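Entry 14. Structure prediction run on the chain below.
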Amino acid sequence: MKLTIAVPKGRILEELLPVFDRMKLKLDASFYDENSRALLFETNHKDVSVIRVRSFDVVTFVAFNAAQLGIAGSDVMMEMDSPNVYAPLDLGIGKCRISVATEAKKKVKLNASHIRVATKYPTITKQYFSDKGIQAECIKLNGAMELAPKLGLSEIIVDLVSSGKTLKENGLVESEVIAQVSSKLIVNRTAFKTRSTEIKQWIQKFEDAVNG
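Output returned:
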């Protein structure tokens, strides 16, 4: 049975490719073709394949052992909190933060007893505000988060922030940082037990590439 590595689409993948290069892990030409709709790719290691999926789906594929290894942001790990997955290595890429943002021109009380939040991280958000004694009513959005306060959908948003440029362009300001985020190598716990030698070798390859 082949070892499958799940990788996320988007910015993290761009930062991951140099790590693959240092590992001498090469993929099919279609992997680098922006017009390709392929999701499963062979590599120069005959026993290893790579799948490219949405960031949240990486954890799901690894949790159910459809992929034995994966690269996922710590934000996704926190949100999904799967007991079947553990993260042996921080890759030091995809660095950003999960933050609370509010409208720049409007004062929002973040110490009220109830607040409405637009976010794709309802679990993280509810826990964060619960720890402050605030009940967070979460409206799940997967994009266009910055529009929510302006259109009255929510009072604030909780989202990933890197440079803060997108917030600024949409009249929002970062008011609180919930957690720092980076991308990690994740492993299915069952696979680690049943294919320990093989998986440890790949963990070491990733570690050498990150530290080298």
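The radius of gyration is 19 Å.
Filed with the rest of this week's runs.
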